[in-house]
Amino acid sequence: MRSYFIAGNWKMHKTVSESVELAQDLGTKLAGCREKIMIAPAFTALDAVSKVLQGSNILLGAQNMGPEEQGAHTGEVSVLMLKDIGVRVVILGHSERRHSYLESDALINRKVRLALAHDIEVILCVGETLAEREAGMLESVIGTQLKGGLAGVNPEAFAKVTIAYEPVWAIGTGKTATPEDADAVHAYCRSVIAGLYGEAAAKGTIIQYGGSVKADNVAALMSEPNIDGALVGGASLKADTFVPIAQFR
Ligand code: PGA
After folding, report:
1. Does residue 222 have its Cβ closer than 6 Å to ligand 1?
2. Which of 91, 113, 147, 183 is deepest in the core (most CB within 10 A)?
3. How far is the CA of 238 from the centre of ligand 1 (A)?
4. What domains, with CATH codes, occur in the chain?
C-alpha cells in the first residue's frame, strides 16, 4: 500500500523571516498529519527553516542542486551543502528548470545520481507542454524524461525516488488535468518504471501530480488509483491554502 506524499515548492518566494514564519505555522498545524509532508523553501531560507523543522514530521526539501559535489561552479549549491543543513529531499527536473534554464535529461540525471549517492531523496519531475500533448507526443516525452532522468540509477537507489507528473500547461495557470487524464499519465509512468525496475518497484513508487493543485481539487485527484500525492506550488505559499491540501482526508 502506497502512502500519500504532499510536497510544497515555494519557488522564488519569501525572505528568511517569511519562510520561518510559514514553517512554524505549518509545523504546528500539520503536527500529526497522516501524510508524508515536505516543504522546499528558497536556498537562502533552508538553514533557518531546517532549525524550525527539527523534531517535526515535515521534511526539508531543496528546489534544485548542482551536478557536482564541489568545485568551480559559480552560482551552484552542492549536495554536501544541502546535506550539511538537514535537507532530506531535492526536487529535480522541474519544468521551470527544464524550460527556463534549459536543463537537459543528461544534466538532470547527473543530479539525480549524485543526490541518491548521498542518500537524499529525489522528486523527479516530468511533464509535457501543451504543444507536445497536442502533437500526440505525450508518452514519448514522458518516457524520454523518465528513462533519461533515471539512467544508471540502480533499483536500491530508485527506492528513494518519487516521480512528479506535472503537465507544463497546468503549472501556475489554474488549469488542472482532469483526475482521469492525470491518472492515465500516471499509469503510463508506472508502466515505464515497471519496464525499468519491475512490477513490484512500479507498484511501490509514489507518483505525485502537480499543476494547480488546490484544496478544492485535491481529494478528486488523490482518489485516482495511480495518484499518490501532490507537488504544490502557488497553494503551498500560505498555511491557509496548504494545510487543507495536506489534510485532504
Ligand atoms: P502550481 O505549481 O501548483 O503553482 O501550479 C506546481 C509546481 O510547479 O510544482
Report:
1. no
2. 91
3. 14
4. 8-13+77-234 (3.20.20.70)
